[in-house]
């Protein structure tokens, strides 16, 4: 198998090594980002929902930046929400702060019952800017 072109955000490689996955992989002009939750640097969750969502976006943006991208390069988003009936409005009022103006990426929202102690997770695919793709 070919070696993966893995992207690590600053100060979090030990967390990914411990949990045995890559935060993001570059392939064929795209960046595939693992689901990001509102975890602190040690992996523990932010206790409050809004802070958790903000931290998830901050963690995502750190990975995008490490790959030479911004959220403007994101083409597909999947979000996972525990108890979406109760949590959706709280979460979605924060989204405009991170998504910017239209046109927006595609979106799939999935309600789940458990996220390892978290309430929100975001997973994306981004188009790498010209010159960033190492295929």
From TrEMBL:
InterPro entries: RutC-like_sf, YjgF/YER057c/UK114, YjgH-like. GO terms for molecular function: deaminase activity. CDD domains: YjgH_like. Gene3D superfamilies: RutC-like (3.30.1330.40). It holds the Pfam family Ribonuc_L-PSP. GO terms for cellular component: cytosol. PANTHER family: 2-IMINOBUTANOATE/2-IMINOPROPANOATE DEAMINASE RIDA, RUTC FAMILY PROTEIN YJGH. This is Enamine deaminase RidA (YjgF/YER057c/UK114 family). It comes from Variovorax boronicumulans. The lineage of its organism: Bacteria, Pseudomonadati, Pseudomonadota, Betaproteobacteria, Burkholderiales.
């Amino acid at each position: 198998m070919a070696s993966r072109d893995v992207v690590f955000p600053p100060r979090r490689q030990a967390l990914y090594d411990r949990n045995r996955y890559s935060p993001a992989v570059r392939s064929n002009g795209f960046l595939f980002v693992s689901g990001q939750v509102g975890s602190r640097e040690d992996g523990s969750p932010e206790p409050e929902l809004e802070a958790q969502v903000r931290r998830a976006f901050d963690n995502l943006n750190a990975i995008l930046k490490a790959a030479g991208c911004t959220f403007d390069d994101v083409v597909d988003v999947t979000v996972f929400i525990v108890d979406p009936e109760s949590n959706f409005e709280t979460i979605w009022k924060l989204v405009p702060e991170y998504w910017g103006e239209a046109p927006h990426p595609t979106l799939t929202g999935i309600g789940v019952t458990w996220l390892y102690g978290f309430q929100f997770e975001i997973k994306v695919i981004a188009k790498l800017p010209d010159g960033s793709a190492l295929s």
